[in-house]
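FORM 7B: Structural annotation worksheet

SECTION A. Query
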Amino acid sequence: MNTPMKIHPKKLLMIIAEAALERQLVADVKRLGANGYTVIDVRGGGARGDRGADWDADRSIQMEVICDDAVATRIAEHVYSSYFENYAVTVCVTDVGVLRQEKF
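SECTION B. Predicted structure
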């Protein structure tokens, strides 16, 4: 017999950053407790100009991490203190629900 479906609360941490930071951000989120992440190439514009991905130094990424609140806070604080001053970086945290909490 199937058990009833349950939605478990987690946080979705989204980091939009210059693509040059990808390797370091991957290492950071792993070291700070994330079980996994997704990285997507993105384009956009904002206070630090447009990033159209026309050449490698102009590329941006979006990294998504689903995790618990403590891990999201650790990662957000680290990204804020390490990258905000010198790089085009945006961080958002939102509530999400997942079906397989053991993955996160």
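SECTION C. Observations
The chain has a mean pLDDT of 90. DSSP finds two helices and six strands in the chain.

SECTION D. Sign-off
Analyst initials: ____
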